[in-house]
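thought: user wants a sequence for this fold. calling inverse folding tool.
action: design(structure=
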C-alpha cells in the first residue's frame, strides 16, 4: 500500500515562508502527477498546485507567483515552497498522488499551516 507523509507546516507571520514536504513510500515514478491541496475551516478542499509527468507545474491563481511545486526523485518527495504567505493561506495542506494505470488516488494525512497577521 502506498503511503504519503506530509511535513513542514507550522505557524508563520504574514509575509513569511514555509516549505512543505511529501515523502512517498514508493518511487514517485509510480505516479503520473502529484498535487498539493488545501482545506480551510468551513471551506471545501481546493487544488493549490500540480506537477505532472514531464515536470510541468500548474498553480491556482491565488498562489501563482508565490508558491513553487517541485520533486526530488531520489528522495521520493514532492515539495511546496510557499513565499509571501498571507493569512488567507491558512489551511490544512494535503499531498495527493495519481498512480499510473489506476483510478484510485492516494492522499496524505495533511499538515497544518497557520499564517498570522
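)
observation: tool returned 117 residues.
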Amino acid at each position: 500500500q502506498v503511503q504519503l507523509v506530509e511535513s513542514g507546516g507550522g505557524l508563520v507571520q504574514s509575509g513569511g515562508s514555509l516549505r512543505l514536504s511529501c515523502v512517498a513510500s514508493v518511487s514517485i515514478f509510480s505516479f503520473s502527477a502529484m498535487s498539493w491541496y488545501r482545506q480551510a475551516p468551513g471551506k471545501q478542499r481546493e487544488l493549490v498546485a500540480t506537477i505532472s509527468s514531464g515536470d510541468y507545474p500548474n498553480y491556482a491563481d491565488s498562489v501563482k507567483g508565490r508558491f513553487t511545486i517541485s520533486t526530488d526523485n531520489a528522495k521520493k518527495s514532492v515539495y511546496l515552497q510557499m513565499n509571501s504567505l498571507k493569512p488567507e493561506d491558512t489551511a490544512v495542506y494535503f499531498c495527493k498522488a495519481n498512480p499510473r494505470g489506476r483510478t484510485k488516488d492516494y492522499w496524505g494525512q495533511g499538515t497544518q499551516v497557520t499564517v498570522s497577521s
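thought: summarizing for user.
answer: Here is the designed sequence. The chain has a mean pLDDT of 95.
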